[in-house]
């Protein structure tokens, strides 16, 4: 036996033990220096991305349009096996499966049947009303402790950008029954999109008041703004759904101080429904006059957004209220007339003062976990990884979000920072002011590439036009910045989960409201509005108001 190696081996062993002891002692000292909050966050973030070994399965259902050509651009990927499903399995040990995938109406029919029968997948994406129904039926589990224990600090920060509202909406009887896929309320801000080439042809200026807007609508209708010598244009666009995000009329009504689809705080500190307030009548009277004078398409009440879009594309309409993405909707007009130009302006008011811009509560999608599912925390881990991968410090945006195809949609969960688009604009503005674009995030850099394509003026410039109209120096977000600086944003005051009366009566009340408004615009007596408000209260609105105020009083007591 060779005895010479024993002392060396003993020395190595002693050294290794000392080294381990030193590292453990150093780690303990470092932990002692850390605050309790830092230690808690460190432990929390370790749990947030811990991997299941062996992997666990998690089932969903999915809506996917047969007309969607995304997968045509992604060879080797399918809905069931793609970069996101692989990432979740590789990083978290979560194997995604789909019980079924369907398109459009088929999806909603199957989904309705699944909810009614209680045969739901492990995780299900629902709206606020469906969340309440599943909770009442005892089919889903409380996620309060699961979220607290497993949500990463970045996930908490991101989902908290909308304030407490999304979590209030997901909380039923004091329990968090779903994880909100928060939507950005400021993205619902609307703007006044105007054909600026028509303005120039008629020698007119952008409107700053409602009176000027009405005059502009009249000019666009009567003064042949397209110069074709034919009486074939209208001023204001509208669809058969009055609250459409593009070509709807909610923000026209805001110009009269009317907010017909918001719950508002009245001077006495109670919540009231905007749809029955007297300011609505003045707005309806103005719309009725526009319609009667031929400034709106006489058949708008029969046309959905796609049909109105075709009219705009054909160069028949010059004024559209719409959200930031309306530039892509309006771009059809440039396909038929490359000289067509649109620009977004601030909405206007009848008083001449800066109007409040209504922001309905935007979050209406929640992920609920089936009562029997053994790994509810897996859902939170997916949120953590999705946000980290796209917007974290080590984000791989071009692989997992836009390559440039919208590959983000391959993930079954798609949370996003609420102000990411506005922040991208601010980054671009900083670059335009300083000439330094080196610090752009991946998202802002991708947007700049599209704007550059448009500004270079090549054959493919039109692919960048819509982006420039949103993120350019005079784009939509420059107007949103004005809204913010002028304190014009009006947020929804009721953000709780649906009340019992909402579950039973809301569809009836909303349909009655929309039918009455449409009838008045088309020529019914204005006094129909008073009849509607009385009926609204009698058929459930009064009870609804009491329930909403009980929730509001409860929120007020929490903050005291």
Give the SSE layout.
Blueprint: H1 5-33, H2 36-48, E1 56-63, H3 83-92, E2 94-102, H4 104-117, E3 123-126, H5 128-136, H6 144-150, H7 153-159, H8 165-169, E4 171-172, E5 175-176, E6 179-180, E7 191-195, H9 196-202, H10 210-222, E8 234-236, H11 250-254, E9 263-265, E10 271-273, H12 279-292, H13 305-313, E11 317-322, H14 326-330, H15 332-336, E12 342-345, E13 357-359, E14 366-369, H16 377-391, H17 397-400, H18 420-434, H19 442-456, H20 462-471, H21 476-485, E15 489-491, H22 500-521, H23 528-559
Parallel strand pairs: 1-2, 8-11, 13-15
Antiparallel strand pairs: 3-14, 4-5, 6-14, 7-11, 7-12, 9-10
Written overview of the protein:
The structure is a single chain. It is built from 23 helices and 15 strands. It is 49% helix and 11% strand. By secondary structure, it is an alpha/beta fold. The protein has a four-stranded mixed β-sheet with strand order 8-11-7-12. A three-stranded antiparallel β-sheet has the order 3-14-6. Strands 1-2 form a two-stranded parallel sheet. 38% of the residues are buried. The chain has three domains: 31-183 and 363-410, Periplasmic binding protein-like II (D-Maltodextrin-Binding Protein, domain 2, 3-Layer(aba) Sandwich), CATH 3.40.190; 188-360 and 492-555, Periplasmic binding protein-like II (D-Maltodextrin-Binding Protein, domain 2, 3-Layer(aba) Sandwich); 420-487, no CATH class. It has helices spanning 5-33, 36-48, 83-92, 104-117, 128-136, 144-150, 153-159, 165-169, 196-202, 210-222, 250-254, 279-292, 305-313, 326-330, 332-336, 377-391, 397-400, 420-434, 442-456, 462-471, 476-485, 500-521, 528-559, and strands spanning 56-63, 94-102, 123-126, 171-172, 175-176, 179-180, 191-195, 234-236, 263-265, 271-273, 317-322, 342-345, 357-359, 366-369, 489-491.
């Amino acid at each position: 036996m060779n005895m010479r190696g024993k002392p060396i081996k003993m020395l190595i062993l002693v050294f290794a033990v000392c080294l381990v002891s030193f590292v453990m002692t150093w780690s303990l000292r470092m932990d002692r220096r850390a605050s309790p909050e830092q230690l808690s966050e460190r432990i929390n973030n370790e749990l947030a991305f811990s991997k299941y070994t062996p992997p666990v399965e998690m089932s969903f259902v999915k809506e996917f349009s047969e007309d969607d050509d995304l997968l045509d651009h992604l060879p080797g990927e399918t809905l069931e096996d793609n970069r996101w499903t692989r990432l979740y399995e590789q990083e978290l040990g979560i194997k995604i499966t789909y019980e079924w995938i369907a398109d459009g109406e088929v999806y909603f029919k199957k989904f309705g049947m699944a909810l009614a029968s209680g045969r739901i997948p492990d995780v299900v994406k629902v709206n606020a009303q469906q969340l309440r129904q599943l909770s009442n039926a005892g089919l889903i589990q409380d996620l309060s402790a699961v979220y607290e224990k497993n949500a990463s600090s970045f996930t908490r920060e991101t989902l908290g950008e909308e304030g407490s509202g999304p979590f209030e909406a997901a909380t039923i009887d004091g329990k968090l029954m779903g994880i909100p896929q928060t939507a950005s309320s400021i993205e619902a801000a609307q703007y006044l999109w105007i054909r600026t080439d028509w303005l120039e042809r008629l020698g007119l200026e952008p409107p700053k008041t409602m009176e000027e807007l009405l005059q502009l609508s009249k000019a666009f209708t009567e003064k042949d703004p397209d110069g074709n010598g034919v009486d074939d244009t209208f001023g204001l666009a509208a669809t058969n759904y009055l609250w459409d995000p593009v070509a709807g009329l909610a923000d026209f009504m805001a110009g009269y101080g009317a907010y017909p689809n918001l719950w508002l705080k009245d001077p006495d500190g109670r919540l009231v429904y905007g749809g029955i307030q007297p300011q609505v009548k003045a707005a309806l009277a103005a719309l009725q006059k526009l319609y009667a004078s031929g400034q709106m398409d006489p058949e708008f009440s029969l046309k959905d957004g796609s049909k109105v879009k075709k009219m705009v594309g054909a160069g028949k309409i010059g004024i559209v209220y719409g959200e930031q993405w309306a530039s892509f909707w309006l771009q059809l007009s440039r396909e038929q007339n490359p000289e067509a130009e649109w620009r977004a302006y601030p909405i206007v008011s009848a008083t001449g003062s800066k109007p409040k811009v209504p922001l309905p509560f935007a979050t209406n999608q929640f992920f609920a976990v089936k009562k029997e599912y053994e790994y509810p925390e897996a859902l939170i881990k997916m949120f953590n990884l999705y946000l980290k991968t796209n917007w974290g410090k080590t984000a791989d945006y071009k692989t997992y979000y836009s390559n440039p195809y919208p590959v983000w949609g391959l993930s079954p969960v798609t949370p996003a920072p609420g102000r990411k688009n506005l922040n991208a604009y601010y980054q671009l503005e900083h670059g335009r002011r300083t000439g330094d674009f080196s610090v752009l995030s991946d998202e802002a850099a991708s947007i700049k590439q599209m704007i550059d394509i448009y500004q270079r003026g090549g054959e493919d410039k039109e692919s960048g036009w819509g982006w420039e109209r949103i993120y350019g120096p005079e784009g939509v977000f420059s107007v949103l910045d004005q809204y913010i600086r002028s304190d014009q944003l009006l947020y929804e005051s009721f953000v709780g989960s649906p009340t019992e009366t909402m579950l039973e009566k809301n569809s009836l009340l909303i349909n009655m409201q929309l039918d009455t408004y449409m009838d008045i615009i088309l020529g019914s007596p204005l006094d129909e509005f008073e009849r509607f408000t009385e009926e609204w209260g009698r058929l459930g609105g009064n009870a609804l108001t009491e329930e909403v105020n009980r929730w509001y009083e409860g929120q007020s007591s929490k903050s005291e």
